[in-house]
Structures are given as C-alpha cells and as structure tokens.
Amino acid sequence: MSGDARVLVASNRGPVSYTLGADGELTSRRGGGGVVSGLSAIGPDAGAVWVCAALSDGDREAVRRGTAEPGTRMIAVDPAVFHAAYNDIANSVLWFVHHMLYQTPFEPSFDEDFRAQWASYATYNRAFADALAEEAAPGAAVLVQDYHLALVPALLRAHRPDLRIGHFSHTPWAPPDYFRLLPDDISAQLLEGILGSDRAAFLTRRWAAAFAACCADVLGAEVSPDGTAVTHGGRTTRLGVHGLGADADFLRERAGRPDVEERMAALRAEAGPGRRLIVRVDRTELSKNIVRGLLAYRRLLLEHPGWRERVVHVAFAYPSRQDLASYREYTAEVSRVAEAINAEFGTPGWTPVILKVDDDFARSLAAYRLADVALVNPIRDGMNLVAKEVPVVSDHGVALVLSREAGAFEELGDEAIVVNPYDVRGTAAALNTALTLPEAERAERTKRLAFAATSLPPSRWFLDQLTALS
Ligand code: G6P
C-alpha cells in the first residue's frame, strides 16, 4: 500500500477550514502559522500532501462531498472519538502535562473514563497513520506535528519502514518528575510513539533535553553524551532543535496595509493621545498567564501612581478551546479582572485596560506597531511568536517584558526584561523598567530583538527539518 506523495505533513489542524452556510454552500478559509508558510516554500511541484483532521461540520461535509482542496487530505473520524482524543486527552491531559498546568483542585485522576478516552486517542492516531501510509510514496519524508499525534510515528513505521519520519513538538516538554504523573504504560506509549520517528525535533534545547531525560527515566533508554540521540529497543532516534522564527517579509508587508493603519488610528483614539501602551496579544489560554499580567499592571498603578492617566494596557485575548470548562472560566476571569481594574482606577477620560476578545489580525498588527511595551509572560510556552513578531513591525521601538519560561527566552532573553511569570510584584517592577527605558536603548534593543527573532524564518525552519531527515 503506497501513494504518490513525496513530502507529507500531518497535524490536527490543517491549512484550510470549511464553513457550511444555511444554503448548503461550503466556503473555505486558509489559516496561517509556521507550517503553512513553511510548506509553501517547497513549491507546488514537490508532491506534498497535508493530512489533517476534519474539525467542523463544514470540514466533515467537505470530506463527504469529496471537495477538500488538492494536496490536503482531511480525516473525518467519528465526532465522539475526535472529542475524546482532542478535548479530553490532547488538550486536557497532554497540554496540561507539558505546560505543567495541573493544580489543586484540577489534579488529574486517571480512571476508567480516562482509559476510554485514551483508546479514542489511539484510534485517532491510527487513522492518521493509515492515511499517511496510503498517501506516501516509497521512501517519502513525513513530518508529524505535535502532541495530538504522538503515537503516529511508531504506528506508521510498523506499516511503512521505508519512510523517513520526523516528529515536531510545538509545546514545551515536561521534565521527568512531572511527566511521571501519567500512568506508566501511558507515558511509555507516548515516548515510544515519538521514538518511532527517525528524528524528534523541538523548539528549544530545553524541551529536547527534557524529552531525552523522560526517555532515560521512564524507558531506561540510552541518551548519547551530547544529548542528540536516544537509543531504545535497538533503534536510535536523533533529536533536533529548530527554533521557529517570525516571518519578517510577510509581517512587514501585511502590517503596512491600509486596514492596519485604520486600526492604528482607532486604537490611538480609544487609548487617548500621547499615552504609553503596554500591549499583549494571546489566545485566552491558561498557560499565557493573562490574569497575573493584569494584576501586575494593577500593582504598577498602585506603586507608581505617576503612571495613572499616562498609560493604557491593551490586552487582546482571543477565545480558544471553549469546549473546555476550565478555558471558559478563565476567559470569564480575564474579563472580570480587567473590569475590576477599570472600576478601581478609571476616570472619565481614561480607561486603564482596553480588553478585546474578537479575533482581528489586522488590529493585532496595529497594536504591535504602536506598542511601547510588549508583555509576554506565559507560565510555560513552547516558543511564543508574539514575542518575536512585535519587534519586527514596531514603529518606534518596543521594550519586551518576557517570561523566562517561554521558549523564546532562549533566543531573546539577553535583550528582554525578563520575569518569573508567577511573580506579580516582579512583573510590575519589570513593566516600570520597560516604561522608563531610555529611548535610544529601547531602539537598540528592538533592532537586536528583531534580528534574533527572524534568524529562522518559517520557510527555512521547514526546509531544515526536511534536509535533516534525508
Ligand atoms: C498550540 C499548539 C498547536 C495548536 C495551537 C492552537 O500552538 O501547539 O498545535 O494548533 O496551539 O490550538 P488549537 O487547539 O486551537 O488547535
């Protein structure tokens, strides 16, 4: 069983999504992101196929009608299986483990329900492995993405030992002491799943080292002295690090368009002329630490009252994973805390926090261009591209307040004002430092941040992984 594709990508979320209108009409929308622009770099003649899940009713309808775009293969698994694999296992267990998000009273207990959900996760991974095995030409390169598909490399290798298989983790990887909260057979399956690849790659050295440490600790695997290879069950998997960077050409062109300029004018008017802007842009995601960011801003206004009326916190927090109760609650809490700050400090002419929750990419770029300070304070983050994008399009230089737990810290830490994300007082002090950074220093740092942030654009990030597989 083999197909024609010479390069294959597999990910839960694909490059295109469909909406089913009331009239039965299907409309498609292309998404962005590193893999999308990376893949476009290899050109239409490369014989590439992207295998992804049908996520919406529109996607499932497109599969049923056979209208999915050429070069894209959507898998329509049973909705209940998908729900268990995506919401219950991938986003509620694996995401929580790698971001170390469990805390009382949200500690896991792995019971019968979990076992049933895990069986669905395995079914969903098998569906991907089967589709890849069907589509791949002999000796093809397959790039499997992320924690949704950790079992795919080993499952695929069992069918198709001829393929060159890579796995890329876009998240952090948990250290062994935390990873081991998973049941032993499950942690072993996850690691052995990824070790089915020829090469397992990560966004930073830190996450790669944690993965190697888990392999040694849980499986008794052998890690090479330089930490770049793991041997287990007679096979060696190489480890790689590819720190995805910002796409400077795309961002600068997009940020220069009239719709962005219009939104800049609107935002400037809403904030009030002359006021300094502390900007953050995130999915409303537990790991992004938006509430502590707001509390740090509150502390700034308390401890440095001179900033009142002179600064505005622009927080764009776009709803995400709303099928999960913990995310719905978090989204509500972000609004509550923002409103409380506005009630506590606001005056007739000054709204201290401007919170927006409707996703608008042009408006995000407008905020990037205007920002005096960018606040990126995740509890843990695989990379964080906002930290890399803001300096690239900044109009007059930006001071970056950056969590040491974001992957981007490895590359940008020297030029940023670095915070411990749990330390609200420390973050408030960092905001004050950022606001008072002399203009010349801010401009210098922004230049160096933009340089570091763009050293591995998506096209090269993607091609490097392909080259490393051959
Ligand atoms: C993270 C993950 C991606 C995922 C994205 C959005 O960046 O690493 O794989 O696509 O979050 O999450 P969602 O659940 O909306 O796909």
Walkthrough of the structure:
The protein is an alpha/beta fold and 470 residues long. The protein has 2 domains: 5-244 and 459-469, Glycogen Phosphorylase B (Rossmann fold, 3-Layer(aba) Sandwich), CATH 3.40.50.2000; 248-453, Rossmann fold. 46% of the residues lie in helices and 19% in strands. It has a 9-stranded mixed β-sheet with strand order 5-4-1-6-7-8-11-10-9, sandwiched between helices. It has a 6-stranded parallel β-sheet with strand order 14-13-12-15-16-17, with helices on both faces. It has a two-stranded antiparallel sheet with strand order 2-3. A hairpin with a 2-residue loop joins β10 and β11. α11 (290-303) packs across α16 (424-436). The protein is globular and about 70 Å long. The structure holds 6-O-phosphono-alpha-D-glucopyranose. Residues 13, 146, 170-171, 320-321 line the site of 6-O-phosphono-alpha-D-glucopyranose. InterPro entries: Glyco_trans_20 (IPR001830). Pfam families: Glyco_transf_20 (PF00982). This is Trehalose 6-phosphate synthase.
CATH architecture of the largest domain: 3-Layer(aba) Sandwich
Q: How many separate domains make up the residues? A: 2
CATH topology grouping of the largest domain: Rossmann fold
Q: How far apart are the termini?
A: 22 Å
Mean pLDDT: 95
- Envelope shape: globular
Question: Which small-molecule species are bound to the chains here?
Answer: 6-O-phosphono-alpha-D-glucopyranose
Radius of gyration: 23 Å
The biggest beta sheet is recorded as: 9 strands, mixed
CATH class of the largest domain: Alpha Beta
Which stretches are low in confidence, meaning pLDDT under 50 for 5 or more residues running? none
Give the strand content.
15-25%
Tally of helical segments: 18
> Main sheet: which strands, in order across?
5-4-1-6-7-8-11-10-9
Q: Roughly how much helix do the residues carry, as a percent range?
A: 40-55%
